[in-house]
Amino acid sequence: MASGLNRMGDNREYEYTADRSAHREEFSKIVDWIPEGSRVLDLGCGEGSLLKLLVERKKAQVEGIEISPSGVEVCRSKGLKVRQGRIDEGLPWADGAFDIAVCNVTLQMVMYPEKLLSEMGRVATRQIVSFPNFANLRNRVELFLYGRMPRAMLFGHTWWNTGHIHQLSIQDFKELVKGIGLEIKKSAYFGRLAIPGFVRLAPNLLSTIVLNELVKPKTANKNKGDK
């Protein structure tokens, strides 16, 4: 690394420890959206906080996949069934193996987000996906005033030392979902300006984190013999 550049806080590679546990704002909503006893796959499950929560609150049958060896180790120490691997390539599960596939704030960190969503649609009936909305008001103001990559959504990092390699907006996500052949069933919005009721007037401007439930479109059965 070049002299004078500080790698402190570099989040391109995650290291997890057994005493680390996360509880994100969107966890409660994810739990609400998942019926009791569901078969759930968490893609990019980190140290297993969400999986553990789903087991405790929803008695879910959970599995996970995580690229970080330390994350996998911590998950297994918690008694969770987690394997190591990438989530943006062919997944090692059969079609329809799960009721729900979850990918929480990880879509923007993979090389092939389109492959990730496509595989989620293959292995699960429903998909729950969240991501940072890069088009939020704070980012727009920062770009306008300073003329550089906004740092508010990079959590203290800069463009070159963050694992957030794809910056996308709600509109971008909608286009990708449609292209893959899925549809958005419902959404939830988070952030300082995401005031319930008000945020739905301009979610692409007011929300910082967006949570979506995706489903496969229902195809009406048509009798070609009918005139």
Give an overview of the whole structure.
By secondary structure, the chain is an alpha/beta fold. The chain has helices spanning 27-33, 49-58, 69-77, 113-123, 137-146, 170-180, 203-206; strands at 39-43, 61-66, 82-84, 98-103, 124-132, 183-190, 209-215. The protein is built from seven helices and seven strands; from the N terminus they run H-E-H-E-H-E-E-H-E-H-H-E-H-E. Strand 4, helix 4 and strand 5 (124-132) form a beta-alpha-beta unit.
Can you give me a brief rundown of this structure?
The chain has helices spanning about 25-35, 50-60, 70-75, 115-125, 135-145, 170-180, 205; strands at about 40-45, 60-65, 80-85, 100-105, 125-130, 185-190, 210-215.
Please identify the structural class as seen in this structure. Answer: alpha/beta
Per CATH, the architecture of the domain at 27-132 and 167-192 and 209-215 is 3-Layer(aba) Sandwich
Mean pLDDT: 90
> What percentage of amino acids are in beta strands?
15-25%
- Counting DSSP H or I runs of 4 or more residues, the number of helices is 7
Structural shape: globular
The N- and C-terminal alpha carbons lie at a distance of: 70 Å
Q: List segments where confidence is low: pLDDT < 50 over at least 5 consecutive residues.
A: 220-227
Gyration radius over CA: 19 Å
Instruction: Please outline the major beta sheet.
Output: 7 strands, mixed
Strand order of the largest sheet: 3-2-1-4-5-7-6
CATH topology of the domain at 27-132 and 167-192 and 209-215: Rossmann fold
- List SSEs in N-to-C order: HEHEHEEHEHHEHE
Summarize the amount of helix as a percent range.
25-40%
Name of the CATH first level of the domain at 27-132 and 167-192 and 209-215: Alpha Beta
